[in-house]
Amino acid sequence: MAALLVVSTILLLLQHRTLRWAKTESNSNLQLKSILDNIDALITIKDANLQYLHVNKKACDFFNINAVDALGKRFDDIYASTQEQAKNRKSDLQVLLHGDHLSMEEQFINAHDKRINTFLSLKFPLRDKHERITAVCSISTDITAYKAIRDINHQLIFYDLLTELPNRRLLLNRLENLLLTARRDQQNSAILFIDLDSFKHINDARGHHIGDELLKKVARRLLRMMRQDDSVARIGSDEFVVVLTQLSSDTDTCYATAEEVSSRIRRALEVPYFINGQAYLLSASIGAAFLTAQSVDTEEALREANVAMHRAKDNGRNQVMFYQPTMTQEAEDRVSIGRDLSYAIGSDQLKAYVQPQFDMQGQTVGVELLLRWNHPERGWITPERFIPLAEESQLISKLGDWLLEQACALLLAYPTHCFTVSVNISPSQFRDPSLLQRIEHILDTHHTPAHRLIFEITEGMLMQDPYQTTALMNRLVQRGIRFAIDDFGTGYSNLAALKRLPLYELKIDRSLIHDVDTDPDSAAIVRAVLALGQQLRLHIVAEGVETQAQADFLNQHHCSALQGHLYAEAMPQEQWRQQVERRIH
Asked: Which of 101, 294, 296, 400 is the most buried (most CB within 10 A)?
């Protein structure tokens, strides 16, 4: 706008007059020179031979020349760059020969500080009274600062500041262009939605500075694997999108290429990342979808890739899944079930079932509370289905609090009995900073005998952040709560750490019990676990006991307690209470 204002001013000043720049200047020329010298732009006027007739003060200062000495010289005489000389001469001749009005960006080196400045240059012809072109006027406005601000704003709007990759907004713009290409040329593209597995655990345990370094290394690793026309974007905390552009018009070829590239990406992201001499391991769940001429829009194609990624996570993580139309309905079901779960907590739909544990004499030494959900429309929904949804939707803490209250009520109903009550604590619950405060509040409110409570945790929790986990366990042990490692024997925990943890119990996973009486390897592992537990003076519970032969083996090797269908299935609390009352009477 400033440059246009300058042009308008000069045109008005020069209107209806023929320039006659001479060494002896008239009053009108002096007035015009004074005006031009005070305008914040580089202004020059050249004659038909491209020799300077006038150079204003701003231009003299920038190129470090004297106004008088500049007269009669050409641009080639005051500026060294042959490339800029040729460009300047070409544009000047275009104005002189054709009468064109030009607008262009030019870069000149400041003669004082040698910095490169960017100018918006406007060139237009000057005519005599016969309308013949006699000179060319150039007005160059310094837009260096403006361009720097514009570039920063562009970076903020369209790029992720941490990784310098395109953000979601720029990604969608590029996908829009690809969709137009797909509809015009029938060239399909692939969208790979990448979510880093367990990144949050590292970020929480080691700090955001380590997390940021990991994200930057992931970004660089992805960029190195792309073709020139492919795109990599970061659209979330640990979410990346790779776009494989214009693969082919053939569906099978697109699928094969996307499968090969996505598998290569998955393997590449598994390679350890070294930061400050320490190795960090990541994996990725990848969902793939295609952008074709039949795609509804870019948001829908991106959503399909996202749905496929979540399916990859649900199936065990660190794998690639391609979108299928049936996944949309399943995703909608997940959202619906998650919403319904929030209403189920505290209602009659949700039940805490009981499965008792028995010692060698057949006495009940403990019970485990297991969640069951009877949906009014869908019927019984398994914990394997709704517990992961609770963790994703942050309902797990509310669900865990409700289950703990059920355990407290059960203990208070039998104050003279010695059995323990076990409840599962998920990794998401354990990472909640308010967990300790909430547990203490529930215990104090119900006046619960905490020494009869057992919290079951997984081996994986001990591996993710052993220091924080151990500290929290010790605080809860001080309140009287005991801890058990659930599904022991299926993970990779450090056995040496067992003696440092405040553990009370190990629960042998049902997969080891299943063929303990027929498979020598399973038998050897179970004997080793029992021996380990006895050496560490830990209570040992075997899960999934279904046959008398399994029970005989476990009793022979002094297993503390047995739990499984051989003795009792999980049942409603009312049914279990009736059984207890019958035994008492």
From this structure: 400
